Nicastrin (Cyclopterus lumpus), 671 residues
Amino acid sequence: QMALVLARLSVSTQSCVGCNSVEKKIYVNLNYTVPCVRLLNATHQIGCQSHLSGNVGVLHVLESEENLDWVLHSGLTPPYLVILESSLFTRSIMMKLKNGSSRVAGVAVVTPNANPSQGTSPHTSCPNENTGVYTENYDPTMARCNVTVWNPLGTGLSYEEFDFPIFAMKEDNDTQVIRQCYMDHNRAGNGSTPQYPLCAMQLYSHMSAVTDTATCMRRNNINFSLSPEMVCDPLSDFNVWASTRPLNNTAKGHKEGESVVLAAARLDSRSFFFDIAPGAESGVSGFVALLAAAHALRNATQEAPPPRNILYAFFHGETFDYIGSSRMVYDMEKNNFAVDLDNIHSVLEVGQVGLHAESRLWLHSDPVSRKNSSVNEESAASGLNVSVEEPGFSQPLPPSSFQRFLRARPIPGVVIEDHRSAFTNSFYESMYDNAEYLNISYPPDLTPDEQLEYVTDTAKALTEVATVVARTLYIQAGGAESRLGSINADPQMVTRILYGFLVRSNNSWFQQLIPSDLVSHLTDRPTNFYVGVAQQIKAILGIVVSDTCFNNCVFVLLPQMYSYLWVQGAAPPNSTERVGFCMRSAARLSKALSPAFDLHEYTSKDYSTWTESRWKTIKGRIFLVASHELEMLTLGVGVGVLLTSLMLTYIMSSKADILFSSGREPANATY
C-alpha cells in the first residue's frame, strides 16, 4: 500500500518510542463507521468486503450521478473511494459503481441527521418469498407476490454483492474533516488536474467466509490447529415467549386439555448496514403493541380467566426467512416445546401498526385455509379512535410468522397490519425506519427522564392499537365481551418502551428492569434490532407478565412453571445504591436457530440457511498520499542507501584486519 511504504520509511528514521506519534501524524482515524458485512445462504453470498490489508483509494465526493464519469472513466488517479450523500445512495448509482469496480476502492455513505423526503427500501419487493406458505404446492397463483407486491419501493440493494467495502458515517466532525481534506487537496478547479499530495481513505472490512453457507460451514469443521478459526456463524438469537397461565416447560410436547391462542410479533429488523437497524415501523410498532396488550390483559385474565390460555411469542430472525417462527414450529413438531401444534387454537399476529396512512387496522387472513375466527372487530375497537376492517378482496397473507405455522397445518388466524394491500411503510428494512419516521418527538428543553415519561401522540395512537389487540385476544381466548370495556392499554408504558428502544435504551426505566450484567448493552442511542435484543425484551416482558417479586432468588418455587430474574431495581430517594429484587414471571427464552443447522442441511429449501461471515478489523482512516513518481523515487533512494550500506559493510569487513589493527609491541620488549 502507498501509505504503508511512506509510513515505514518515516518510522525507520525514528526510534520505536515515537512510532505511535508518527502514525497519528500520518492518519486520521474515523470514530463512527458502520460497514456493510457479508452474509451467505444456500446458494450465494451478499454484502461487501475489503482486501485483507484494507482498500485504499483517493477520495472523491460525488456531487451528482452525472459526476460518476470522473470516477468510472476520466479521473487520472484511480482507484477512488467515493463519498456519497444519502440522497445519492441509490440502486442506480451503486450498480454503476459495482460494474466499474476496478476503479472503485470503496464507498462511504454519509447518513443524514434527518430522514429524506422520498421513500426508499433496500430490501426486496417481495420479502421472504421463498420460505412462506405460498409455493407451487400450496397456491402457485399467490406465490412470489403474483397478487400483491408488498414492498413496491424495494430495490433489492441489500441482497447484492459488492467486492469493495461500503461504510456508513454519521454527519459529524469526521465528515467535515473528510470534506475539508477533499476540498483542500482533491477538488479540481477551472479544468485543472488535482496535484499531489492527494487526500485518500483506507477502509478495513475483510470477511473470512466466501461462496455460500455450505462452503463456510465445511471450512468451520476443518481443524488444522488446536484453536481452529471459524469463518462464519449461523444467524441466530432467542425467541421470547410467555403465557397468561404458566406452562410446564419441563414436560415437553402435547398438553392434554390445553388450548392456547398464539399472539405473535417479530423482534428483528435490518438495513443495508448491519449496526443500523432501528425497525421502528417494521418491527418495533408490532412488538410494543403486543407487549402493551399483554400488560393490559394481566389483570383481566387473573380476575376472569378465559377458558383458553394466551401464549405470547416474540420471534427473532424473521427478516431472514423466518428463523424464529420456523424454529418454534419445528420444536413443536418434534415435541421439544411446552406445547405442540395440536394445542394451538388460533393465531393472532401483530405486524406493522404504526398507523401512517390513517387510523385504520386491517385483518389479513389466508384465503386458502380461511376459517371463521370469530373475531368481533367492532367490539374490540368500541370507544376507540381506531377502526378494524378486513381488506374486502382475496389476497395472500402479507409476510408474517403465521405463514410458517400454516406450512405445518391449516390453523385459523389473522395478521393485524396498518396496510390494506402494499406496505404503507416507505422505509421498510431501512436505516430511516426510525423514531422520526414514527413521528416521535418531544418538546424542547426536556431532560432525558422527562422525555421518558412524556406521552407522545405516537404513543397515544399505539396505545389504542394495543387496546384493540388485547380485547381481540381476550375474545379469541373465550373471554366475555362484557369485560372488554375494562381492558385498556397503558399509554405511560407504551411511551416508555418506545423511548427505550427508539431513542435511548440507557434510561432510568430500562436500568431498573435488567440484571446488572446486561447494563453494558444499554446505550445512548436507539437499539439495533439486527439479531441481538432478546434479553432486553425478556426483561421487559417479565415485568409485563410478572406476578410476584421476592427479596432474593435463592429459594425458587415451581421452576418448571416460572423463570426467575434478579433485576437492578431503582435507587431510593437520596441514595445512589439500587435496591434489587427477584422477579418471577412466565417469560422464557427459546432458541431462534434455523433447524437447517441442527439437521446439517445447509442447502435446505425449507428452512433459513443464512450465515454471517466473521471479520477481524472494522475501521476507516484518511491520510495524504504522495504521487506514484515520488513514491518510486523514495523507494529508489531507500534501495540505493541499502545497497550502499551493504557495499560499505562488505568492504569494511574484508579490510577489518587493516582498518582496525593496532601496532603490536615486540614480544621481547622490556621496561
User: Anything to note?
Assistant: The longest strand covers residues 104-111. The first helix runs from residue 2 to 11. Confidence is low (pLDDT under 50) at residues 1-17.
